[in-house]
Write a structure and sequence with these properties.
Length: 388
Amino acid sequence: MIVQRRAVSAVLAAAALLLTAGCSDDGDGGAAGGGESRAPTDSASASSPAATEEAAPAKGSAKVVRTVAEGLETPWGLAPLPDGDLLVSSRDEGTITRVDAKTGKKTELGEVPGVSPAGEGGLMGLALSPDYASDHMVYAYFTSASDNRIVRMLYDEAKPAGEQLGAPDTVFRGIPKGFVHNGGRIAFGPDKMLYAGTGESGEKGLSQDKESLGGKILRLTPEGEPAPGNPFPDSPVYSYGHRNVQGLAWDDRQRLFASEFGQDTWDELNAIKPGDNYGWPEVEGRSDDPDFHNPIAQWSTDDASPSGIAHAEGSIWMVGLRGQRLWRIPLKGTEAAAEPQAFLEGEYGRLRTVVPAGGDKLWVVTSNTDGRGDPEGTDDRILEVQVQ
């Protein structure tokens, strides 16, 4: 059985595939809430039909208020702390750094052991435990020498800088790794379960194989077991048929959305329904096949190559790598209420991660030092962006 249980105690061929596939990914291309430990209600639930919801305004805005921090090396994941400061991961250095959200001062917590960066792999997504106030656990998704895995570590602020991360406890392992398409985004949902976006590691067939962990959205308990209420018995698989998911976000009615890299034609924003098949590699973008769940919006890979997403002010906000812009997708229920709008186009280079900063603000992380951008002297940066 492919589901690999947690550890209680503590490619070149794929690169060639990337070159021949015309991949739009990295190169070309939250906070825990209340609720029970069950799957969130279906996005088409009768208790919250889209028809009764007011649509977000067709037009919005986004402007950078300030640069929070600069001089970051290959930043990837971002996790806001309860006091407002930010934890940021370095994909290639394998470190986690604390950023003072007011002054931009950077303090390295330590290096995560076992990270094996190469290509699109390394230390990626971060998330705080739903019980962080009492357990001080930080979760991380990273590429090891053999697989992609999720670990949790104690963050001990009383220790000296550089020594504040405890030994990693592996809660989930066995996610396929590749030179490309490693997924990497993790987030705790409103149900306090751990969600992970994975990639098919360059092996397209894994996405349609429900016995594989590649090309999926996974839903786990904080201890790394298949979460109660998952659509397939004793499986962590929540949805399948994905190519490379790097964005996860919930709206204010606890409905899950995910961004997905296309290959040559269409990048996607999807409303996630438990157990549904999102089509890759049989289809890319929208299709007429009823077996596959269509995206609510799609883009040319030149215009997006999306990584992170966030929900704020009635819209999904999606950052683009190759597209070098911030997209706004206004929502009505689980549908796009109007055509997506682009902001910050080309102004800050490649954009990797976006996280709610409270109210009408977002944190946006650039990605120009990852070997595929054109870094300026102050890259990479964390930006504070005001939206509506």
